[in-house]
Amino acid sequence: MFGPFRSSSPLSGGLLWKIPWRLSRPQKARQRKRLRAVDAVISTLDNALAKQGATTKAVERWKTEMPTEGEMTPKDKYTMFDRKEKKYRKGVHSESIFAD
Q: pTM of this prediction?
C-alpha cells in the first residue's frame, strides 16, 4: 500500500516482533533476581512491622500463600497464567507486565 499508512517491514513480521519461545540464561537470572527482590521487600516489611508490634493481613496472607523464589518450580518462575493461551501458560518475557 502506498502513502503514509503503508506497512513497514518491522511491523509486518520483522525481527523486532519475534520473541523466542525460551528464556536465555541471563533472562532467567534477571527473573530470579526480581523474584528475590520481592521476597526481600516482603521480609523487610514483615521485620519492620514486627519491631513495631504490628501485623498486616495482606503481609501475613502473602507469606502463607506465596512461595519464595527458592520454593518455586521453574514452571512458576518463568511462566504465568493466561486464559487465552492453549495450555493456559505463557512466558514471562513474551509481554511487558507494565504495558497498558
A: 0.71
